[in-house]
Amino acid sequence: MVLVTNARLTFNSIPDGHLKPGDLVHDTSNKIDPDTVPLNGGILLKLIVLSPDPFMRTLMNSDGEPPYDLGEPINGFAVAFVVRSEVSTIKPGTHIHTFLPYQNYVVFPNADLLASLPNEAGIPWTAYVGAAGMPGQTAYMGWKEYAKAKKGDVAFMSGAAGPVGSFVVQLAKRDGVKVIASAGSDSKLKFLKELGADVVFNYKTTSLSEVLKKEGPIDIFWDNVGGETLDAALYAANLGARFIECGMIGGYNTGNVGVKNLYHLVTKSISMHGFIVTTLWPKYLEDFYKEVPKLIADGEIKHSEVVYKGFQGVEKALEDMFNGVNAGKLVAVLGDD
Ligand SMILES: NC(=O)c1ccc[n+]([C@@H]2O[C@H](COP(=O)([O-])OP(=O)(O)OC[C@H]3O[C@@H](n4cnc5c(N)ncnc54)[C@H](OP(=O)(O)O)[C@@H]3O)[C@@H](O)[C@H]2O)c1
After folding, report:
1. What is the pLDDT of residue 336?
2. Which residues line ligand 1 (CB under 6 A)?
3. How many domains would you assign to the chain?
């Protein structure tokens, strides 16, 4: 019997605005024996790649859906290694991508619905929390379901340099759409140009409404930000525009996502869809895994990632994310901490 540390990242206090040190705690007090811990028909997972994502901040509010429990590990998407298994379809030594508590080892009881990642494309495991993971699924499935893109359409993507936005930009270009993309720094604009975006601008230094007035009207709006950005897009929409409400990161720290121009939904016959990616899994997940890892391996879908280390890396990545520090997907890789 060998007990090892089962470290975890616990939720310690509800942040007031931006996440601050102490809101999450790296707790190393728990122990586990991976060889003998009872699985009760489930599987034992060792987490290797964690996925700091914007929605995690919303689960730290008391009205999150559902909110994180104080004193318990936070949950998020992760890639994990299967250490032991009592499920015939999941072999030890394979890898799983799913929503898990952030601790080194997790006994997952009802694993029958999970499937190991075949990774026939041979891409790095970190990609399975980014372009080949939940953010990539969001872009791929949301675009397929709601964009109704036609060659020559004009699309605007806000928050375009992150893992969701940068994937959507490339899907739009593959469909022959003119892409207007906004982000918060010059290096992000350069990245977006490399992905093929036609018009890029820094929303912090350039008037959003002026750009949309000059380059619009827009037929498709992929919204990652909400608030004033959504208002400007409503104003600049074409008749029959499709609005895809993917996220409202502009309001996650404040809870304020108010908009004024909703009446344009009526006058311009806009269709607006909000969605959570998991609701589209039954329709698209199989196609996603058949298609996307290979597109990434072949370089046909480009992605970028910034790697942080350990549970502290998750905290730092969540902080950097809301300060707009890095382009691409922020990932945290666990060692033996
Ligand atoms: N519906 C779903 O199922 C689903 C699934 C995944 C993600 N999402 C949503 O999709 C959006 C993009 O997700 P992602 O993973 O690709 O994240 P992301 O773009 O990497 O998010 C971080 C970026 O958001 C921007 N940002 C941060 N605070 C902001 C603020 N107050 N106002 C405006 N921009 C701000 C920053 O970029 P700049 O430097 O450009 O400001 C930052 O680098 C998020 O809203 C997320 O919640 C939805």
Report:
1. 55
2. 53-55, 135, 138, 159, 161-165, 183-185, 188, 224-225, 246-247, 249-250, 275-277, 321-322, 324
3. 2
